[in-house]
Amino acid sequence: MPPRTSPSSSSPTDTQAAARAITPELREWIIAQAQAGFAGPVVLQSMLDAGWSEDVATYAMEHVLRAHLDGLDRARGKSAAAPDTAPDSAATAAPAVPEPDLSASPLRIDVGDREVEVLMAMAQPRIVLFGNLLSPEECDAIVAAAAPRLARSLTVATRTGGEEVNDDRTSDGMFFQRGENEVVRRLEERIARLVNWPVENGEGLQVLHYRPGAEYKPHYDYFDPKEPGTATILRRGGQRLATLVIYLNEPEQGGGTVFPDVQLEVAPRRGNAVFFSYDRADPRTGTLHGGSPVRAGSKWIATKWLREREFQ
């Protein structure tokens, strides 16, 4: 467990106070967790459980790890000619959550076999709209392969760890196994390169079909830690950290993806995808989202959920 908070560091309200609250003991503990391979959300929750305020915990995670990795880069001499012979595990660890590299404000991201367009990006909550993730032919191929296998969509039952019918979700769906066919395999590899997250940490691709009137009311994709079945769910790969919703066709009316907390609606354009991440299982991530009712026509989407660890 992380060092306990002191009375003077339990509720800082500004950056300077948060920085003062980071003790050497806490800094060493955070670095040790990173080197041991624990994901960011797990470390953050341990700090909250130990009594640290969310402001301090979030600030500490970001600044301690950044400073540590910067120091490792300097020590390893990345700008020098000496080769890397034994990279530190913390320096090569994956980021805390899946994240596209938008540091240079790119218009497009090369994912190997195509260039994906960056159409819109929001920092808080982290939402990125991509274009040209799939070609029209690939969209059609996924729909054709999924259509014969559709059944009433289920949701994860966090009370038991199983699945259940949910009246908030009125669609038909199915899951592909990872790499089940060529078009699914290509898509999974693109996603991995696009958001810098291993293929094996992704759940199987889910395809959903919404007929007129069908919808998915606003919800969160992470698993609620307070629910009794969550521990069972997390054994398969840890917590969900990010979602990618991919539009496989264009309904005549309706069917957008809505984010009520920020009053954003993403139109379902074929081949586009909306990505959002959540570094902790908390409504304060602002990732409440839903699928608006289809008013005319039908909607086909594919959803990819990304986990902390390899999904079994």
Walk me through what this model shows:
By secondary structure, this protein is of the alpha+beta class. Helix content is 27%, strand content 23%. The protein contains 8 helices and 17 strands. The protein has helices spanning 15-20, 24-35, 40-49, 54-76, 89-92, 136-146, 182-195, 230-234, and strands spanning 108-110, 115-122, 127-131, 151-152, 155-157, 162-164, 172-175, 206-210, 216-219, 240-247, 253-254, 257-259, 264-266, 273-277, 289-291, 294-296, 299-307. The strands form 4 sheets. A 9-stranded antiparallel beta sheet has the order 1-2-3-14-10-17-8-7-4, with helices on one face. A hairpin with a 4-residue loop joins β5 (155-157) and β6 (162-164). α2 packs across α4 (54-76) and α3 (40-49) crosses α4 (54-76). The longest helix is centred in the first third of the chain and has 23 residues, at 54-76. The chain starts with 14 loop residues before the first helix and ends in a 5-residue tail after the last strand. Residues 6-13 and 78-94 have low confidence and may be disordered.
